[in-house]
Write a structure and sequence with these properties.
Layout (H helix, E strand, L loop, with lengths): L4 E4 L1 E2 L4 E2 L8 H9 L3 E4 L5 E6 L5 E8 L5 E9 L2 H14 L1
Parallel strand pairs: 1-7
Antiparallel strand pairs: 2-3, 4-5, 5-6, 6-7
């Protein structure tokens, strides 16, 4: 696997990466982005990755590919839960 540079949106009010506000770690985000179960277009050039971390947590990660090769800017990440999680699992079952 090639080396990817991950950069995180830093919340200026809370003075920490925004993912921390959702209880998500950098390691979990990087697990999902390295091996996403789904990766689709989002709004305004963003991408949405869905997947499972090594710890078994299902996450939705919103990011923007940087203009520089092998670099991603992570905007936010949070748990998939309830109906979105059920729909994601159905899609995974359909794919086999």
């Amino acid at each position: 696997m090639r080396d990817i540079n991950f950069r995180y949106y830093y919340d200026p009010d809370k003075r920490c990466p925004h993912i921390y506000l959702h209880g998500v770690t950098e390691e979990e985000v990087e697990d999902v982005l390295r091996y996403p179960a789904e990766d689709r277009r989002g709004r305004e050039g963003s991408r949405i990755a869905l997947g499972k971390s090594r710890d078994g947590r299902y996450l939705k990660v919103i990011y923007v590919p940087d203009p520089h090769r092998d670099s991603l800017f992570i905007i936010t990440a949070y748990d998939l839960a309830a109906k979105p999680l059920a729909a994601f699992r159905r899609r995974l079952r359909k794919r086999g």
